[in-house]
Amino acid sequence: MTNDEAKRLALSLLRADTEEEVMEILEKQGYWDDWKVWRLFGDREGNYATIGNQASRPEAALTEKIVNSIDARLMNECLVRGIDPASSKAPKSIREAVAVFFEHKQTYDDFGGTLQEWDARKRREVSEEITVAVTGPKRNPSITIGDTGEGQTPDMMPDTFLSIDKQNKLRIQFVQGKFNMGGTGVLRFCGQNRFQLIITKRNPEIIKAMETRDESGDCWGFTLVRRESPPEAVKNSIFTYLAPIEAKALPRKGGVLRFRAQSLALMPDHNEAYAREIAWGSALKLYNYDMKRFGSHACMKDGLLYRLGAMLPEPALPIRIHECRDYRGHAGSFATTLTGLTVRLEDNKAENLEAGFPASVPFNVKGQRMTARVYAFKKGKAETYRSNEGVIFVVNGQTHGLIPKTIFSRQQVKMGSIADSILVVVDCSDMAYSAREDLFMNSRDRLGGGEFRKELEEQLEEILFRHPGLRELRERRRNEEIAERLEESKPLEDVLKNILKSSPSLAALFVTGMRLARPQRASGGENQGSNGGKGEYVGKEHPTYFRFKKRPIGDILRKDCEFGRHCRIDLETDVVNDYFSRNVNPGRFILEVLEKESQEDKINSNLTLHNGTAHVSIKVADDIAIGEEITIQLTVDDDVIAEPFVNVAILRIKYQVDRKGGGGKQGGKAGGDEGEEEKSIGIELPKIVKVREPEWNQYDFDRYSACKIVQDYDEHNENKDVYQFYINVDNVYLRTDMKQGGENPKLLEAKFVFGNVLIGLGLIKDYREREEKAKRVSNEPVEEAIRWNDEISVDEHVAQTTRALSAFMLPMINKLGSLTEEEVEAFGQVGDDE
Prior knowledge:
The chain is globular, with a radius of gyration of 31 Å. It folds into four domains: 3-337, no CATH class; 348-466, 2-Layer Sandwich (Ribosomal Protein S5, domain 2); 526-654, Sandwich (Immunoglobulin-like); 686-817, no CATH class. Helix content is 29%, strand content 21%. By secondary structure, it is of the alpha+beta class.
């Protein structure tokens, strides 16, 4: 093959947008059925075991590709300067690399290395060097990722792009990729044949600066990856790549195709995919990629841009997203810059977030320090920034795992009523590598199991449940709705109370407590901040004090800490809410154990800062002895204040106090034995709200929806379950029966309402019992127990089940309720005859 022929083949594959086009090109060239020109990916026959066991979601796999391009850009800047990336002269972190290479700083400081500090022009200019172009069909399009990174020579490609488990980046501290697997995670989402095209060229300046010799150094190399059917006696498919150079001499060990060219048009411009020429770098094309989860237009709020923003909350470098399919729009609607979720939120904070947010919560689990950034959105604003994510775990700006938003509806959190308005981003960058390995899977798209994850989730539940800002928001939203609905809901509650009382079995299961009181206006208090509740709290950039609440500076606090429970300590300050999580000069919170340093990893803690009050929550490990005293030191510091703020407390471990009456708990298993008489599950009498068609969007209803529940809370008893029931009284099946039936429409509506409420209560009861069982069963794996209610939340469980039953609700109530004794006896006789 001549140089021009190789170049034409590479460009024809690049411009092909479907698998069928690619196969036609390869068949015409004579490569498709010639197994000798295809080399084993990673030179391993069993490569499917690695390639097929990576990211479980297409957006997570695609993110790995983009991260590799970011790494390539950083590597390029390092290598052209003649610096060995693994040497002591290289940057020690991603942020330092960005500050030195792209901001031209001599040293790294707290003001450098973040996109948040860049203006729009700089973000746009730098983003042009890493691009994502979407082409081809609208349903399963092709995606091309281009960058002007270091690039590879054709002879290097088998050991880089086409390798498995090579330790190419393991000792380089300023890149994200470590496991040498990010290049293959996308393959399972690429059509039926798993096609991936790679075109790359090494930056000539690197070859010159590093004084390396490579006969293919002035060439572009290209290849195509595909999946092949397994050979005889092999159970799994195998992945190969096109490598016809000297293939006959070295079967399955050939070299990739190559050609010489000064530059190639590999980068997009507006909505034209291959318009800008580059002299080096890489382009990787994924054919017929699975984009069903990404909506339609790549730059719209439900499209690829926003899904990638959640997977890359804080990318080291900006990325330019181009929509190059046949969509209508003005010139500026086809390309936009991806800067990440947190940067977008910071840029539009006043428009999207509630006052006082984001709030930062430094916390500690088994000696590992993390910081949670809590976002509370204004009504209707969250859907632009996230879909099902509740808690996102981030390392160096990239999502490594997440917990869905069902966490906010958990019994231990009780934030279900505002679950659609909360997002938590946990920065895990300071965790030890061993802890990261325990928590995150290598694919970086999901969490592992084990005791560490269990304790981490317990800490997050405590943070969310106790966060004063979230409690205030929940209370305010609740009061607004109750004020509107209170009078309408009272007759419904009274009827429900009578229904429950009329049935002994129902009365034994549910607590029909007092109705929700009319809301009162918030009356200030400690959660209103240091300004005494007068207007919005305005904190200082750096604290001037950080001390135990209502105690003189330097006073040692003595506190009882009940075994198995959280011990809470309040401090007061005058600093802003995001002090511990902001990018510029963030605060540091350190909890240390004095005299017994070995016990530090046995104390889990968190600090919630909101409007001038810092709540510290501490829980000690189970093997700390009753009666033991632990001295802890709480230190708050940053790089601006002259002296750190230091507070010392002495914790005395004691038995739990039985708050239901009685003395201290002396250990032993709580709760009754198997076979004990069934008790009330503690569900308070629900508040019922009728929802009409004009309000459907507000409650995520459609014509088939029947019932939605939202968890509320009882301010007098935190252990009670309180729910609000929203019933769709414009359900299509209800409306049809009301129009065509001869029964009183109001009576039919009432039957539909109370039928759904009773079914909902039964589903809640069953859900909570299974949830408790998952936690009690000692031989069940910890990860299964803690994941049980992540699969589907109790509110989703109720919504889906009642939706399915809505067509049968009225026929079931009417027909079963009108059965006569004669009909029942006749039914029994039929059964006996059979």
